[in-house]
Amino acid sequence: MSAFEVSGLTASFGGERVLGPLSLRVDKGDKVALVGRSGAGKSTLIRLLYQEVGRDASLVPQDLGLVNALPVFHNVFMGQLDRHSTWYNGWTLIRPFAADRSVVSHLLGELGMAEKLWTPTAALSGGQRQRVAIARAIYRQSDLLLADEPVSALDGPRAHQVMALLRDRFATSVVAMHDVELALAYCTRIIGIQDGRVALDEPSDRLAASDIMSLY
Amino acid sequence: MFSYPTVRTSFIFVAIALVGLLFSDIAITSSNPWQDLANFFLGVVTPNFFSSEGLMTALLRTVAFAFVGVAVGSASGFLLALVYRFLPVRIFCNFIRAIHELFWALIFLQFFGFHPLTGVLAIAIPYAGIFAKVYSEILDEADPGPRNLLPSGTGVISAFLFARIPDCWHQIRTYTAYRLECGLRSSAILGFVGLPTLGFYLEASFSQGLYSDAGAMLILFYVLIATIPIWVRPKLLPIYVLSAPFFLGEGLPIVWGNVARFFTQDIVPAPLRNGEGLAGLVPWLNDLMVNAALPGIWNTVILTQIALVATGMLALLAFPLVSNHFGGPVRRTFGHVFLVIARSTPEYVLAYILLQLWGPSMLPAVVALALHNGGIIGHLIGRQTNGIRLRPDAPKGFNRYTWELTPRIYRSFLAFLFYRWEIIMRETAILGILGIYTLGFYVDSAIQNIHFDRALVLILITALLNIGIDTLGRYIRRKLALQTMPTC
């Protein structure tokens, strides 16, 4: 069953085509890794997919889109602003409800940063900020994840832990990443992008790291 | 050097001011100006804090009017900022902030009388217009990233509260606190039209020659403003805002009959009121233009241009006083004190004092405007030079001033100056109330003669003139690619 299907996607920058025309069908249950050289068009593709699929997907953009002035809790809570009334949300800004606090705190615990619940986001390190954006995407509880280099600032073991969490929490995902080993370990399908076009599209169990390296 | 557009523009403005000087009346007319000035300074150094109990009340009222006026202005300005993208709202806001607080006070005095509402609205209305503009600019600059990531069903208000306000909150708070300082100055000068704030007691002390009382009042006012960071705390703010309305004083009750009469009779142009119809309107307007509006505009523009150039020269002379690149800590401390005094004293108070000492002419007005505005700009660009790192073997003294620093800060200096152009004009017009023949003089005379219809037309003309200068100033700043943050 198809999670989404797009065709004829194109993007131009300054009059020069950087992506496409490109067609893509992603089935439910697919864990897609987008790999390719930097500048190949991975970020552009993620952004276009988000526009096509609409806001029902969870997105982790490369620049994370955090509200720096708010603490970690509120940044994560923003993933569910649509589920509550304006009053509930407004009150949460002043004094969060215990139920939400424990859910968010538990989620942050899984990401190894439970103690940062009330830290202003601006005071976090790059890796911590990345995990806040991931926590927000998970808290959103949608079926589809679109993520652009979500673990680029995390060290080895932490990156594995987070990728495993993302794999378990989303039925379907499209994740742009440059780490080939992680892509093979946590994704079921590898799509290689080269010069704005699909240069490779194979199930990951049929590929070895060396097959992918040819794209770089 | 003339190949730089900034330099060419500067010389054009200097030339305009020099031509303006030919047509201006700059003179010291009092018989004993230096003796009076010496007496005044003697009063300031021998302040009398215990002359009357009215002093503390006046201080309290000044703070109360400032808090209530700025709070109301800030709240309404915030609501206006949300719809600021609509042209009619922008025009409306431009218009209400083009009219000076004192003009608003003069209007409200005619029908609310000496009721506290007069003072509150006189501050709140123009401030709402300014807040709307600045808040909307701040809100527009919020990072759009988080907003684009919100789930699709998120309500407008929730999105605004989470993804927009927190990002701007710091800037909104800083600007509002800064405006509170301006509000204290506005509140103080409302006393000059009879409200129970500092200006009222200052005028009373001066007219009786009680310079020590006046000195005490000025010193208290500086202390009040200089200690704002100490007594205005985020935690205390709700207490101040909620209790301030109870300290505005009783004033006099509003006579609602006056309100009705003001709108249905007083401000209706005389020929229409007397049934002469539209035919009578032409000679009436003609008389108004020839005998009040045109001379008022002429004097306002001349005085503004002279004051603008004087402000610029003073700012350029004053910034080394607070710059780390010159002098030792002792010199800089005195420089700071001088500039704090210059910029904390409202132009109106400075002009009033100088006018008492030197007699009526344009001179006190020019000096007052230059001191206040030059103090502000000198402080800002002096602070800016502290961020400049010079090479270790950079020249010292006068060469450092002319070759290293002035060229580097000249663009932001011009940006501040052209930003304040409109503010200087607004103040110039209002100084007319003190007896200088700018637009404020003709407005004040019309009100004294109970010609509110004429006064209102003159106020409208003043507002349009301000809007025109504001537009021109913005055009020049854009032409020269100058950028600046708002100052008041």
From TrEMBL, chain A:
Top-rank taxon: Bacteria
Domain ABC transporter: 4-216
Keyword set, alphabetical order: ATP-binding, Nucleotide-binding
Gene Ontology terms for molecular function: ATP binding; ATP hydrolysis activity
Presence of keyword Nucleotidyltransferase: no
Classification via PANTHER family: ABC TRANSPORTER ATP-BINDING PROTEIN (PTHR42794:SF2), HEMIN IMPORT ATP-BINDING PROTEIN HMUV (PTHR42794)
Protein name: Phosphonate ABC transporter ATP-binding protein
Annotated organism of origin: Marinobacter santoriniensis NKSG1
Automatic annotation (TrEMBL), chain B:
Keyword field: Cell membrane, Membrane, Transmembrane, Transmembrane helix, Transport
Membrane topology: Multi-pass membrane protein
Location in the cell: Cell membrane
Highest taxon listed in the record's lineage: Bacteria
Cited SUPFAM superfamilies: MetI-like (SSF161098)
Record-given protein name: Binding-protein-dependent transport system inner membrane protein
InterPro entries: MetI-like_sf
Transmembrane segments: 55-82, 102-129, 149-170, 182-202, 214-232, 239-256, 297-322, 334-355, 361-381, 423-443, 455-476
Entry GO CC: plasma membrane
The keyword Chaperone belongs to this UniProt entry's keyword annotation: no
